[in-house]
Amino acid sequence: MKTLFEIFRVDHWGEFWWVVVGLAGQLMFSMRFLIQWISSERAR
């Protein structure tokens, strides 16, 4: 089984944590988008 370093193609922990921060940001933005979409559909 591949390690997370191999999956994300990083060489050291510093790069790994930037990948984690980036993925967390993408997840938060996506959730915000979905919540606003659902909220606007309910308001109609």
Structural overview:
By secondary structure, the chain is mainly α. The chain has helices spanning 4-8, 13-43. The longest helix is centred in the middle third of the chain and has 31 residues, at 13-43. The radius of gyration is 16 Å and the shape is rod-shaped.
Count of helical stretches: 2
Q: What is the gyration radius calculated from CA atoms?
A: 16 Å
Order of helices and strands: HH
Low-pLDDT regions: none
Fraction of residues in β-strands: under 5%
Task: Outline the biggest β-sheet.
Answer: none
* Class computed from helices, strands and strand pairing: mainly alpha
Q: Tally of extended strands?
A: 0
Mean pLDDT: 93
Cα end-to-end separation: 48 Å
* Helical percentage: over 70%
Shape annotation: rod-shaped
Features:
single chain, 44 residues, mainly alpha, 2 helices
Task: Give the topology.
Layout: H1 4-8, H2 13-43
Summarize the structure.
By secondary structure, the protein is mainly alpha-helical.
